Amino acid sequence: MNEPSGNAGQAQDSISSLSERLVALVGAAAVIVVAGVMFWQALYGDDSPPNVEIELVRIEPSGDDYLVEILAINSGGTQPLP
Q: Among candidates 39, 54, 44, 47, which has minimal Cα distance to 76?
């Protein structure tokens, strides 16, 4: 089999180790950013309730049943509370 030997094997290991560390660093940074945004929204985010409006788009027969398409729009937090 073709196994790396000597310095070539060590160079390949260091490249793999470096790339693994880089990916781990990017992943950890992404987790920290997402957690920070969630924490910020929990403290300072909009506390208004959801305002969901549902509209019937269409009804179609589908075999023995019916397919009902709806459009749900949540406009909560976009309008001032009364």
A: 47
Q: What is the pTM of this model?
A: 0.48
Three-state SS annotation for the chain: CCCCCCHHHHHHHHHHHHHHHHHHHHHHHHHHHHHHHHHHHHHHCCCCCCCEEEEEEEEEEECCEEEEEEEEEECCCCCCCC
pLDDT of residue 20: 92
Backbone angles phi, psi at 48, to 5 degrees: -70, 150
pLDDT along the chain (82 residues), means of 10: 59 80 96 96 83 95 96 79 51
Give Cα 74 to chain centroid, integer Å.
19
Residue the block writes with tokens 């305002």: 51
